[in-house]
Write a structure and sequence with these properties.
mainly alpha, 16 helices
Amino acid sequence: MRTYRDLFRAPEYTPLFASFTVQASAQTVSGLALGTLVYDATRSPLLSALSMFGGSFAQMAGALTLLSAADRLPPRTALACMALLFGAGTAVLAVPGLPLAALFAIVLGLGLVASLGSGVRYGLLSEILPEEGYLLGRSVLNMAVGTTQICGFAVGGVLVVALSPRGTLLAGAALYLLTAVVAVTGLSRRPPRAAGRPSPAETWRTNVRLLSSAPRRCAYLAMWVPNGLIVGCEALFVSYSPHHAGLLLAVGAVGMLVGDTVTGRFVPPRLRERLGPPLRLLLAAPYLLFAVDPPLPLGAAAVLLASVGYAATLLLQERLMALTPVSLHGHALGLHASGMLTMQGVGAALAGGVAQATSPTAAMAIMAAASVAVTLALAPGLRPLPALRPAN
């Protein structure tokens, strides 16, 4: 499976792609609307950043207690029910006069539910596609996120002005409902991927097994920490330039789209290991420019260039799959996604706190420097391996 035509001929890939794209649209417009709503009410960069990414904190709680359910629930039912819950929660966020504490409680609750989503979705992807098609299929989903964000942040910015942040949240809720409809009508009924009942104990045992391998552990850290620190930079776009935050987020999505497209489709396997280190550094290095408070066009160019580096995560996922038994792929991918989103929440909180004490531009530069330092520290554990074979 080497071409996009082959990919979309695979049974059920198209409806999975469609449901994923609609859900990404809902997340994009809802996140921008919520961040704008909170910033308008509080004028706090920290609270605005937490409203957009704070739900990621609950991801790790879900990864430690609920993730075993990702392989033990029927995929179609699980995806549809999660989309309905997100739609209902997003609609409640639009209620006028909702206390800030209640707003953040809902954000955390939705984050807990989302901890199952990646494991279910990407585990289903590994069922739909043959092994050699996984990287291409996942890269196309990443490209869908980039394209959706390019359009979604632009459209979301217009909707925030035309409909108000609360009206935009309701539009996001409607998109979540459409996600559920697409999943139910397009995907076939499949049994759970694993037998047995989900439980916190089973989740914990599998997490320990996955993280007990040093090569896998290093791959996880490389996907979680540098990425999360740079998302902290993105969480400051609203406070850095309130009227151009949608533009900056869209520019970042363009860079991510370019990186995923080139890496997933055109880079031959023999070059992927060599490409990983420079991409991991590219993710953070351009943000160092914000130390000198650049004008908006130069800052946008730095964001565009840096976002190409997100493709490094795609290569690390391929490395993780090669180091993991097939029977654990769903759980392993869910743990990756939950840990990554958790670190994004941590990064947003750290960046917001630093911005409160300094400025948004200074905080971006500090977060970028920290990301470069972590990437360099992890480099010895990510050297190319002579043969990537699944560990126990």
